Amino acid sequence: MFSQDRQVLLECTVFLKIVVNLVNTSATQRPSKLPRMLTLAQLARTAVTRKRTSSSLNSRTLIPLPPRSAMRLTALLSMAARVVIPKDYRFGTNRPWTAAAKRLNPPGKKRRKVFVEPMAAEDWSVLRGDTVEILAGKDKGKQGKVIQVFRHRNWVMLEGLNTHHRYIGKGVDSRGTYIASEAPILLRDVALIDPSDRKPADVQWKFTEEGERVRVSLRTGRIIPKPVVQRRDGIVQEQWKDGPKDTSPEDTLAKTYVPSLKTLEEEVMETLGIQENRRHRRSYWY
């Protein structure tokens, strides 16, 4: 009984904290959170009702719980920690949860709406690590490597191209360091490089005989392979070699588990050769 009361009290506390945080949000972020606020308020009211009802019932009476999807505490906490992006949010080169993005999009600030040409995710042809050529701008005709892709704005950023210079680390006694910073380029202003002749070409997604989806140059019919991308930890999966402490894919995918209807205790007893003739009986705790 005490463990159940403590669980109900913990649920009530978490629910009320989340509701208070949602109520204290700004006016611009509140409309997108109203449905969630109502759901959490209903859950909190249900938990409080369970708490009041449990005191008047017998200790052996079982109290029905709400649906599992509504009582998943980790899901509620993840909902509260998730970054909620308003409809009028203006995406840039910074990720929405970073301090730089929050400084450019403070709560309550209305920025000019930016119209972005809609593009399906499966039609996006330029990937990070590709070599492209600039078709317009001050660096027209130059080729470079794609280092960043911003799909919300149809932008790509090239290494060392389309740069502008600025000062960083300005202080009272120093003017800072003068650096070159890359600026994003629209996707329609770049073209992929055909590996056969190193010239820009229009591409189209097609399927091979094996069913693999590849990019094909419309001018030469040559397949443009996908670039080898380095992960954040510096590992290139296609070039990685297993070391003495790595597990091979064959050993990882090998089926070594044999399903059984026995419990963990019964399997351990069978492995250790322990004989137990007693049987489990239903027990009650008051």
From TrEMBL:
Location within or outside the cell: Mitochondrion
GO CC entries: mitochondrion; ribonucleoprotein complex; ribosome
Domain KOW: 125-152
Subcellular location, principal: mitochondrion
Molecular function GO terms recorded: RNA binding; structural constituent of ribosome
Pfam family for this entry, one: KOW
Coiled-coil ranges from the UniProt annotation: none
Gene Ontology biological process terms from the UniProt entry: translation
Entry keyword set: Mitochondrion, Ribonucleoprotein, Ribosomal protein, Transit peptide
Matches recorded under InterPro entries: KOW (IPR005824), Rib_uL2_dom2 (IPR014722), Ribosomal_uL24 (IPR003256), Ribosomal_uL24_C (IPR057264), Ribosomal_uL24_CS (IPR005825), Ribosomal_uL24_KOW (IPR041988), Translation_prot_SH3-like_sf (IPR008991)
HAMAP family per UniProt: Ribosomal_uL24_B
PANTHER family, sorted: MITOCHONDRIAL RIBOSOMAL PROTEIN L24 (PTHR12903)
Family: Belongs to the universal ribosomal protein uL24 family.
Official protein name in the record: Large ribosomal subunit protein uL24m
Native organism: Gasterosteus aculeatus aculeatus (three-spined stickleback)
